[in-house]
Amino acid sequence: MRFRNAVFYAVSLSLAHTFFGYTAQAQQFTLPDGRAFLPPPPRAEEPAQQADLRAFEKTRGLKDKARWKLAQNDANLNPDHVIKDFSCAAGFNLDSAKLPAMVDLLTSLAQPVEQDVSNEKDFWKRRRPFVGTDKDICTAHSDGLDHSYAYPSGHTTWGWLTASILASALPDRATQIMQRGRIFGESRIVCGVHWKSDVQAGYMNGSAMFATLQEQPAFTQKMAKVRQELLALRNAKTEPDTKTCAVEQQAAQDIF
After folding, report:
1. Mean pLDDT, rounded, for 26-47
2. 70, 227 Cβ separation under 8 angstroms
3. DSSP letters for 129-186
4. Residue 64 has what DSSP assignment?
5. pTM of the prediction?
6. pLDDT confidence band for 163 (50 / 70 / 90)
7. Which residues are catalytic?
8. How many other C-beta atoms lie within 10 A of the C-beta of residue 189?
9. Is the dihedral of CA 25, 115, 69, 89 positive or negative?
10. pLDDT at 24 over 60
11. HSE of 162, CA atoms in CB hemisphere, 13 A
C-alpha cells in the first residue's frame, strides 16, 4: 500500500502525503527494518503461493456481500474512520473528536511507518494479486494502485499497530481489539489487493513496530495520554452500532 492523500481514501495515492494526508510531525521514532526480519514472499512454485492463489480466488465470490462491504469500509484510512472501526471491539463508541491524543499519536507515527513499509515494498517488488487479471477488487483501480507493490500489506501493518495501541490501553478488551485487527488485515484479502501472505507479513510488521516503540520516551509519553482519554471516554460511553458489530463478529469466523 502507498499511503493515502488528503481525502483519506485508500484508492487515492500520493507519495507526498502521509497516512492522514498532511505533513507528519517532526517527531521521529525508531522502527525495525522489515527487509531483514520479514520472510521473503513465497515463490510461484511454493505451497504458500498456492494458498495465496486459493484465497484470492475464493474471496472473489464475496463481491457485494456483507464481508465485501466491510472490506470496502476498512480500506478507508481516515484517522476518524480507523479509530471508529474499533468501537465494537472496545465496547464503546470511539469518537476521535474526543480522542485527540490518539489522533496525535497516530499522526506522529504515520511518516516513519510509511517510510518503513515503502522501503519493504520496494525491496521485494511483489505484484498485487489482481494485476494481469480481470478479477473484481473492492476498490477503484488507479495507476498508483495497479503499479504499486503488495508485500507487506501497509493497511495490515497500520491496522495491527493501531489495534496493539488500543489493546495496550484497554487490556480487558485486548482479545476483541486484536480480533478486529485481524479482520482489518483480512479485508485486504477480501478486497483482492493483497495476497494472504502479504497480510500475514503485515501482522508481523505491526507487532515488531509496536514492540520496538515500547521504551521510546516520545511513544510512552503519548501512550499515557491515550490511556487517560480512552478511560474517560469509556466512563461516558455510548454504545457502538449493533448491526456493525454483528457483521464484524461474522467476519471473525471466516477462513481464507
Report:
1. 92
2. no
3. TTTTS----SS---HHHHTS--SS-HHHHHHHHHHHHHHHHSGGGHHHHHHHHHHHHH
4. T
5. 0.91
6. very high
7. 155, 188, 194, 198
8. 27
9. negative
10. no
11. 35
Closest CA to 159 of 211, 249, 231, 85: 85
Contact 16, 30 (CB under 8 A): no
Phi-psi region of 12 (alpha: psi -120 to 50; beta: other; left: phi over 0): beta
Has residue 113 got a pLDDT over 50? yes
- Measured distance CA(151)–CA(122) in Å, rounded: 9
Per-residue confidence (pLDDT) for residue 82, from 0 to 100: 95
Q: Cβ distance 101 to 223 under 8 Å?
A: no
* Burial class of residue 155, CB neighbours in 10 A (0-12, 13-18, 19+): buried
pLDDT at 6 over 50: no
The residues pairing with 27 across neighbouring beta strands, listed in sequence order, are none
Q: Which residues pair with 13 in a beta bridge?
A: 4
Q: Across the strands, what pairs with 4? A: 13
Cell numbers given for 220: 510512552
Q: What pLDDT score was predicted for residue 27? A: 57
What does each C-alpha distance from 239 to 19, 119, 234, 236, 243 come to in angstroms? Answer: 28, 40, 10, 10, 12
